[in-house]
Design brief:
By secondary structure, the protein is an alpha+beta fold. It has one domain: Alpha-Beta Plaits (2-Layer Sandwich), CATH 3.30.70. Helix content is about 30%, strand content about 30%. It contains two helices and four strands, in the order E-H-E-E-H-E. It has a four-stranded antiparallel beta sheet with strand order 2-3-1-4. Strand 2 and strand 3 form a beta hairpin. It is globular, with a radius of gyration of 11 Å. Copper (II) ion binds near residues 13, 14 and 16.
Length: about 70
C-alpha cells in the first residue's frame, strides 16, 4: 500500500534544492515518488509505510539542512 504525505519544508530556495531533496528521498527504501516544490514550500512523497516512516522522511530532509514545519505536517 502506498501512502502520500505532504511535508511543509522551509529553506529550499531553488530547483537545485528540489533536486537534492528528491534525489535523497528517492534513495530511501520504500519511497516511490517525490515532488519537491520550493515555491510552494512543500515536499510530497509517495511511500510504502512498510519501508519507511513519515518521521524518517522528515528526518532525512532535516539532515540535509532544511527545516520541516512539524506543526503543519
Ligand atoms: Cu537551492
Amino acid at each position: 500500500m502506498t501512502t502520500q504525505i505532504t511535508i511543509p519544508v522551509e529553506g529550499m530556495s531553488c530547483t537545485g534544492c528540489e533536486n537534492n531533496v528528491q534525489f535523497a528521498l528517492t534513495s530511501l527504501e520504500g519511497v516511490e515518488a517525490v515532488d519537491a516544490d520550493h515555491l510552494g514550500r512543500t515536499v510530497i512523497v509517495d511511500y510504502d509505510p512498510g519501508g519507511t516512516s513519515s518521521d524518517d522522511l522528515r528526518k532525512a530532509i532535516e539532515d540535509m539542512g532544511y527545516t520541516v514545519n512539524r506543526e503543519q505536517g
